[in-house]
Amino acid sequence: MGCLFATILHSSSFFFSILILSNAMTDTITANQTIGVTDTIVSSQKNFELGFFTSGNSNNFYLAIWYKKISTRTIVWVANRARPLTDSLGVLKITNPGILVLLNSTGNVSWSSNSSTTVQNPVTQLFDNGNLVVRDGDQPQNILWQSFDYPTATFLPGMKFGKNLVSGLDRYLTSWRSSDNPSLGNFTYRLDPSGSPQLIVRSGTTVKFRSGPWNGLRFSGFPMLSPNPVYTYGFFSNKEEMYYQFNLVNSLVFTRLVLSPTGLVQRFTWAERTNEWVLYSSAQTDNCDSYGLCGAYGNCIINRSPPCWCLDGFEPRFLRDWEGADWSGGCHRAVQLDCWSDGFVKYSGVKLPDTRESWFNESMSLVECRTLCLMNCSCMGYTSSDIRGEGSGCLVWFGDLIDLREFNENGQIIYIRMAASEIEENQKEEFELPLFELATISNATKNFSQDNKIGEGGFGPVYKGILMEGQEIAVKRLSENSRQGSDEFKNEVIYIAKLQHRNLVKLLGCCIEVEEKLLIYEYMSNKSLDYFIFDQKRSMLLDWPKRFNIIVGIARGLLYLHQDSRLRIIHRDLKVDNILLDNEMNPKISDFGIARSFGGNETEAKTNKVVGTHGYISPEYAVHGIYSVKSDVFSFGVLVLEILSGKRNREFHHPDHHLNLLGHAWKLYIEGRPLELVDSLVRGSWCECEVLRSIHVGLLCVQQYRENRPSMSAVTMMLGGEGAMPQPKQPAFFGEESPQGVDSSSESKNIMCSANELEAPPPPPLNSEQDNDSMFPSTVEWIVICMGYVSGIVVGMVIGHSITTRGYCETVEERQLLCMLEFHGLGAVISFLIVSRL
Ligand SMILES: *[C@@H]1O[C@H](CO)[C@@H](O)[C@H](O)[C@H]1NC(C)=O
Ligand SMILES: *[C@@H]1O[C@H](CO)[C@@H](O)[C@H](O)[C@H]1NC(C)=O
Ligand SMILES: *[C@@H]1O[C@H](CO)[C@@H](O)[C@H](O)[C@H]1NC(C)=O
Ligand SMILES: *[C@@H]1O[C@H](CO)[C@@H](O)[C@H](O)[C@H]1NC(C)=O
Ligand SMILES: *[C@@H]1O[C@H](CO)[C@@H](O)[C@H](O)[C@H]1NC(C)=O
Ligand SMILES: *[C@@H]1O[C@H](CO)[C@@H](O)[C@H](O)[C@H]1NC(C)=O
Ligand SMILES: *[C@@H]1O[C@H](CO)[C@@H](O)[C@H](O)[C@H]1NC(C)=O
Ligand SMILES: *[C@@H]1O[C@H](CO)[C@@H](O)[C@H](O)[C@H]1NC(C)=O
Ligand SMILES: *[C@@H]1O[C@H](CO)[C@@H](O)[C@H](O)[C@H]1NC(C)=O
Ligand SMILES: *[C@@H]1O[C@H](CO)[C@@H](O)[C@H](O)[C@H]1NC(C)=O
Ligand SMILES: *[C@@H]1O[C@H](CO)[C@@H](O)[C@H](O)[C@H]1NC(C)=O
Ligand SMILES: *[C@@H]1O[C@H](CO)[C@@H](O)[C@H](O)[C@H]1NC(C)=O
C-alpha cells in the first residue's frame, strides 16, 4: 500500500517538473510571459502546437500553428505572413490591454492581433480545435481576439467561413505564394455576399471559380458534397452573419480544407495507417469549373469535345474565336427577347449560373417566382432557391447568365427566358398561366376590403392588391353564380393569357378555388382613360402629346389583336373605360370578356346576342349582329373623336344642333373647320398636322359602311403620316341619339340586346359555346380549361375533387384543341382552370 503511494507521488512530480522546465506543455501565455523562437505552446489534448518555423531555404521565421500529432509538419495558420522575422531573436508576448504582439530583434512589431476591447488580465490560449484565442483571464467567456477570425490558407472544422454583417469581419482564405512560402499568394477564396451568396476563388480580382449558390443541400457547384461519415456541413445566413461551416463527426479524424498556391480548393484527410494526407475532394474537378470558360449563355459539357456549347436558341457571338476554341465571348440570342411575350425553357442537371446579379426570396413559391421574373424584362431566369423536398423559394437572375455547366448528377433545374418563337412545342407547357393561391390574393387585397375596391369590371368588382413582394396588382373577382360572368372569365383567360403586347393589359395569373374565380393583372396606377378625359380638371393633365400617344398606343394594341397575334381577336367592347393607363400614361387595352377570335380566312361572324357598349357599336353589329375587325375599327374611331373632343359620344349635346359627336365632327369637317372639334385644353400643346390627321382617321373609322373603314394597319400608317388618306364619307348614326335596336334606356355601361329576329344562330368561333354543354354527362360539375400551349385549350371535367379525362375530342383550328382529359389526383392539375360550372 505504502509502496504504491510512493510510486504515484514519484510519477506525478516527474510530470510536474517537465511542465515547469519547458513552456512546451502549456496551452496558455499569460501577461509578462514571452515565447521565443524555440518555444512552443500546445493545446491541452495535444492536437495543435503554436511556435515558429522557417520554410524553404530562407532564413525567415514565421509564427504558426500546426498539427502536433501529425508527423508531417502541416501548417494550418500563420501570423506574420507579410513580415517574417529575419533572425531567431524575435519574441511573442501579450501586452496588458490584451494585444498579442510579435516583435523582431530590434523591437519592431512584426505582427499583432488587434481587438476593440481591453481587459485587465489578458491570457492567450491555444485550443484543441487549432484556434488561438486572446481572452480575459478573469472571465474566460470574454474573447478579445481569435485566430479563427483571421484564417490564412486553411479552413478548419468549427471555423466560420464568411462574413459578419454587423462588424464587417470577413473570414476568407488567401493562398500561400508557393508550397514552401507562406507569404500572401495570388489567390483568395471568399464568400461573396452579392445576390445569392457564393464562395469564389479569385486570382487578384479575376474570378477563377465559384461554388454557385447554396441550395439547401449543398452549393450548386459541388454535386459531390453530400452527407458523409467524416464531417457535417452547412451554410448559415441571417441578418447578422452568413457563413459556411463544417464540423467533424469523429473528433479523432483530421480533415482540413486548403486553398493551394495554385488556387485549387482541396480537402485532405489524414490517413493514420499510411501516415499521409489523402486528397478527399477538390472543388474544381475539371475544365468546366474554370469560371466562364464558355462565356455568357454557353453551356459546358465536360465529356463532349469541345466542351463548350451555346444553349438552345443561342449562337456564338464571335464565331471565328469560338471555332478556334476561345469560347469566352459566349453566345447571343438568335431571336431577341421582346419582354412581353417571352417564356421560359427549362434546363435540368446544371450548375446554376453566376448569382452575383441575382435576387432571392426564401418564402416565395415557384409560381410567384416565375411571375416575378416574367414581369421584369431584365430577369433572365429563375428557379427554386431551395431544392429540398418539392423545392421552395425563388432565385431570379438579372443580366447575362454566365458559367453554367452540366453535371452528371445532383445538377439543378433552371428556367431560362426565351423569346416565344424560340420555345419548342415540347417545352411549351412551361408557358402556363400562373395560379395564385386564394390566401395570397385575399391577403394582398386585405380580404377584398371595400377600401381596396377600385372599380367594377365586366363581370365583377376589381380590387387593388399588394403582393408580399411589393408588387401591385389588380384583381378581378367574378361575381358569384354569374353564368354570364363565368363565360367572360373564361374568355379573358383564353384570350388575354395568350396575348402579350405593351398596349394590352397583362394578365399575371388567376386563382380558382371553391367558389372564387379571380383574375390577377398588372396594376395600372393611372386608372382608365375615362377618368381623365371626361373630367374638366383631370383632362388638363392630358396635353396633345399625351393624347396622341394614347391614340397611337390604342391603334397599335388593336392592330396586334386583329392581325399580329396568333389568335386574330376582335375585342368587341372597345371604349374609353377599357383603356387603362400606366404610370407613364401609356394606354393598355383591357377587358376581353366578350372578345372573339377568328381562325383561318374567316373575317366576320354573326351573333344573335349583341353585346357591347352604347355609343361605340357599329351599325352592322347593332342592327344585324355582324361583327368583324371593322366593328372594332368603328369603336376605335369613336374613341379617337372622344379623346380629341373630351366629350362622350353617348352624352354629346350641342346648343346649335341635335347631332351626336360623330355628326358634330362630320359637320365641322365638311364645313372646313375641323379643328373646332378639339378640346380647347390641348390647344397650346398641339401639333396641328397630327390633330388634323387624327380627326381624319377618326372620321374614316366611323363611316357607315364597314368596307369603307380602314384596317388597323392602315390606321397606324395614317397616324404615322404615311399612306394616302381617302376622303371620309358620312359617319353612321350621325344624326341619331342611339342606334336602332340598341336599348338606349339602359343606364348600365354594358348593354346586351337580343336580335332574335335573325334567322340562324351564327357560328361562334369557340365550339364550347355552341355545344351548349350538352356533350358533358350530367354528373360533371365543372369544365376545366387548360392553358397548355401544346394542346391549346383543353376541356376536361372535375367530378367532386377528382378529375376525369375523357381523351381528346375535337380540334378547332390548328391552335385550339378542345378535349376532355382524365386526371387522377390534383397534383397534375396545376395548369388547369375550372372555368365554368355546368
Ligand atoms: C507584469 O509586469 C508588470 C511590470 O513589469 C507588473 O506590474 C505586473 O504585475 C506583471 N503582471 C503579471 C501578471 O505578472
Ligand atoms: C525589424 O522590423 C523593422 C520594421 O519592419 C525592420 O526595419 C527591421 O529591419 C527589422 N529588424 C530585423 C533584425 O529584422
Ligand atoms: C524600429 O524600432 C526602432 C526602435 O524601436 C524605431 O526607432 C524605428 O523607428 C522602428 N522602425 C520602424 C520601421 O518601425
Ligand atoms: C484588426 O485588423 C484588421 C486588419 O489588420 C482590420 O481590418 C480590423 O479592422 C482590425 N480590427 C480592430 C478591431 O481594430
Ligand atoms: C502570381 O502573380 C504573379 C504576378 O501577377 C505571377 O507572376 C505569378 O506567376 C502568379 N503565381 C501563380 C501561382 O499564379
Ligand atoms: C427589374 O429588376 C432590376 C434588378 O432588381 C431592378 O433594378 C428593376 O427596377 C426591375 N424592373 C422592374 C420594372 O421592376
Ligand atoms: C398575410 O400577410 C401578413 C403580413 O402582411 C403575413 O404575416 C401573413 O403570413 C400573410 N398570410 C398569408 C396567408 O399570406
Ligand atoms: C375575410 O372575409 C370573409 C368573408 O368575407 C370572412 O369570412 C373572413 O373571416 C374574413 N377574414 C378576415 C381575416 O378578415
Ligand atoms: C419575401 O417574400 C415574402 C413572402 O412572399 C415576403 O414576406 C418578404 O417580405 C419577402 N422578402 C423580401 C426581402 O422581399
Ligand atoms: C400617373 O401615375 C404616376 C405614378 O403613380 C404618377 O406619378 C403620375 O402623376 C400620374 N399621372 C397623372 C397624369 O396622374
Ligand atoms: C376559306 O374559306 C372557304 C370557304 O369560305 C374555304 O373553301 C377555303 O378552304 C378557306 N381557305 C382557307 C385557307 O382556310
Ligand atoms: C342545347 O341543349 C338543349 C338541351 O339541353 C338542346 O335542346 C339544344 O338543342 C342544345 N343546343 C343549342 C344550340 O341550344
Automatic annotation (TrEMBL):
Its EC number is 2.7.11.1. One of its GO terms (biological process) is recognition of pollen. The keyword Nucleus does not apply. Residues 339-420 form the Apple domain. It is an enzyme of class 2 (transferase). SUPFAM superfamilies: alpha-D-mannose-specific plant lectins, Protein kinase-like (PK-like). This is Receptor-like serine/threonine-protein kinase.
